[in-house]
């Protein structure tokens, strides 16, 4: 007897492989760093989102080691039972102070944080507006909210204004990546906030790739633009520039207390290990004093862009550590990524559905832990490719 559903899956996997879209994992052996052991080889990596080079910082490791005897490993329960540790609470308070917002709430992942905010604040009588290049978690959050979901072309604020003007929804929310994860450009947050004020809407800012990198002291995209508003709900992930794991939402006090009551991805899951919050407290102190790292990162970005432009590669407008090189076809992108791998350099090939069809690309991400020589090595390999 045949199993029709399994047969369809096998045919689907074959089709993905033929289209150059089959995803595979690489095996990292050892700590995350600029030079990594992957699948038994030492490679120079331009893959991670460890923008400040903190993922393997000794201060974070020391904070974990110091906290371990008192805190143990697992949290053991959800936050609303007995899993909310003093370390979680201390981090939430410090983070809110750090970004200049009244209150904060810690989540296990950025995906869970985005799902929580949208579904807790918007329902069937609402409308959600999203940039077409937003992260998948924002799109899924909009769908799960059961509100009307209206998307606008990337950075087309005139189209967004038309959609918001036409909306008759009781509640409205605009969702946006502060730094777009596959293009590296920065959203026009002041203009988006002005539209939300004009149309009485929330603004959810996903600052996964801006926190730690942008703004005074690495305080993120709101600080970068000098924005303050009770309409803003700010989400930062903590496994990228912060070098640890999890995510945090900061907003008005009443909004956070509402999430505590209604956010299903917060209520119905075990709390993160408290030792991670100990590491995050140490990370915040490193971030605020990392102006030298951020300055070095900007120099590396300029070096990379100048070299790639001289070689004739097609770049996007990005002043952030995310530097996409547009190739176009899936096969060509995979081939160039493989050619770089042969030269000992790891750069991922990004293909649909992560990016639009016909815009497959190399996604180069820089870290403050890279050196000028590392970037020069990458440029030499790109020239060979």
Structural overview:
Strand 1 (35-38) and strand 2 (41-45) form a beta hairpin. This protein is globular. The longest helix is centred in the last third of the chain and has 21 residues, at 291-311. By secondary structure, it is an alpha/beta fold. The chain has 15 helices and 14 strands. It has helices at 4-18, 58-71, 79-83, 86-99, 110-121, 136-145, 157-166, 189-198, 221-225, 253-262, 264-267, 274-288, 291-311, 330-342, 372-384; strands at residues 35-38, 41-45, 103-107, 126-131, 148-152, 171-177, 202-206, 232-237, 247-251, 314-315, 322-328, 345-346, 349-350, 360-365. It folds into 2 domains: 26-52 and 292-384, Aspartate Aminotransferase, domain 1, CATH 3.90.1150.10; 59-288, 3-Layer(aba) Sandwich (Aspartate Aminotransferase, domain 2), CATH 3.40.640.10. A 7-stranded mixed β-sheet has the order 3-9-8-7-6-4-5, sandwiched between helices. The protein has a 4-stranded antiparallel β-sheet with strand order 10-11-14-13, covered by helices on one side. It starts with a helix and ends with a helix.
Question: What is shown here, in short?
Answer:
With 385 residues, the chain is α/β, with parallel strands linked by helices. 44% of the residues lie in helices and 17% in strands.
Question: How would the blueprint of this fold be written?
Answer:
Blueprint: H1 4-18, E1 35-38, E2 41-45, H2 58-71, H3 79-83, H4 86-99, E3 103-107, H5 110-121, E4 126-131, H6 136-145, E5 148-152, H7 157-166, E6 171-177, H8 189-198, E7 202-206, H9 221-225, E8 232-237, E9 247-251, H10 253-262, H11 264-267, H12 274-288, H13 291-311, E10 314-315, E11 322-328, H14 330-342, E12 345-346, E13 349-350, E14 360-365, H15 372-384
Parallel strand pairs: 2-12, 4-5, 4-6, 6-7, 7-8
Antiparallel strand pairs: 1-2, 3-9, 8-9, 10-11, 11-14, 13-14
Helix pairs in contact: 2-12, 4-12, 5-6, 13-15
């Amino acid at each position: 007897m045949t199993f029709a559903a399994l047969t369809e899956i096998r045919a689907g996997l074959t089709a993905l492989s033929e289209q150059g879209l089959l995803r595979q994992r690489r095996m990292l052996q050892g700590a995350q760093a600029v030079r990594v052991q992957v699948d038994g080889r030492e490679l120079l990596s331009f893959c991670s989102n460890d923008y400040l080079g903190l993922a393997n910082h000794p201060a974070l490791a020391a904070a974990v080691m110091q906290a371990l005897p008192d805190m143990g490993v697992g949290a053991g329960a959800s936050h609303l039972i007995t899993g909310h540790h003093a370390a979680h609470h201390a981090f939430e308070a410090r983070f809110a102070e750090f970004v200049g917002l009244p209150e904060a709430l810690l989540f296990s992942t950025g995906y869970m944080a985005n799902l929580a905010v949208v579904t807790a604040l918007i329902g069937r009588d609402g409308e959600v507006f999203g940039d077409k290049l937003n992260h998948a978690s924002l799109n899924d959050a909009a769908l799960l909210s059961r509100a009307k979901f209206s998307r606008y072309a990337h950075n087309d604020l005139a189209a967004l204004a038309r959609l918001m003007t036409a909306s008759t929804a009781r509640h409205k929310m605009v969702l946006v990546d502060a730094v777009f994860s596959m293009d590296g450009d920065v959203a026009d947050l002041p203009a988006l906030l002005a539209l939300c004020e004009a149309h009485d809407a929330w603004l959810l800012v996903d600052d996964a790739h801006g926190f730690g990198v942008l703004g005074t002291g690495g305080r993120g995209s709101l600080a970068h633009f000098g924005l303050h508003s009770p309409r803003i709900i700010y989400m930062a992930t903590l496994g990228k520039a912060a070098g640890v794991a999890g995510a945090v939402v900061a907003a008005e006090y009443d909004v956070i207390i509402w999430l505590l009551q209604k956010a299903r991805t917060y209520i119905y899951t075990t709390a993160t290990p408290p030792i991670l919050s100990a590491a995050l407290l140490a990370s915040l102190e490193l971030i605020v004093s990392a102006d030298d790292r951020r300055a070095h990162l900007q120099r590396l970005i300029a070096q990379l862009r100048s070299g790639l432009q001289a070689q004739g590669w097609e770049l996007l407008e990005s002043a952030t550590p995310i530097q996409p090189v547009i190739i176009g076809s899936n096969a060509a992108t995979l081939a160039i990524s493989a050619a770089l791998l042969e030269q000992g350099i790891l750069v991922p090939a990004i293909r649909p559905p992560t990016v639009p069809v016909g815009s497959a690309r190399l996604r180069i991400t820089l870290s403050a832990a890279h050196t000028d020589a590392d970037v020069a090595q990458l440029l030499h390999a790109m020239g060979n490719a």
